[in-house]
């Protein structure tokens, strides 16, 4: 049965994945709860590439080199985020939980390295226009119960003073899943450098799915990408938080880069929430 490009339905599976159905065909849209970088090997006559579960293009971040990166914890690490002031963290709206502990100053989340600060979130504020169906406005603010102590291991990242431009170099980070079945998580923070994708190319890659509040970053040729990188984690370009890890098709798929919430669209909302709370 041929896939219809117009028959689109998003549902949430028990695995937490969003499934896109094109007529009789099913593809998964994954909310990026973990991060891995995969290489796809072409198979003659195959409809889809096979996965080689190696890290390609990514690397272990130098220890505490991403001091704005936080881990969201609910008895386990489940999402990432970015510290934007001593009291506020930016993450993805689909990472919302009623109780969240924010862990700052982390590198190896499996051991106590002496640089960590664990602070409870007291307010989790999703964007009022967040749409869980298409992940539009996939952004959330978390207020900490007390100010973080800023030091060499815990620092803030600047909000964008402008929107990013095509081919601008960026870095995404997170504690990534290294197993296709979602069971193996690296303890140490992983980084991947990748460019901003032109908006027109991004929209062509995801017809009828992209909104003006989303941007693409990654590699159109496939072979390497941030894949299931911690949802809510940072995409930083030239020292500014330009993206929040949101969703994407299967990892490293040619023609389908990763999708992020476009932070430059939310400066006013972020300022308003911080001012009024």
From TrEMBL:
EC number(s) recorded for this UniProt protein: 3.4.21.4
CDD domains: Tryp_SPc
Residue ranges of every copy of the Peptidase S1 domain listed in the record: 55-275
Subcellular location: Secreted, Extracellular space
Catalysed conversion reaction: Preferential cleavage: Arg-|-Xaa, Lys-|-Xaa
Membrane-spanning ranges: 29-50, 74-96
SUPFAM superfamilies, sorted: Trypsin-like serine proteases
One Pfam family from the record: Trypsin
A molecular function (GO) term: serine-type endopeptidase activity
GO process annotations (BP): digestion; proteolysis
Name recorded for this polypeptide: trypsin
Provenance organism: Cynoglossus semilaevis
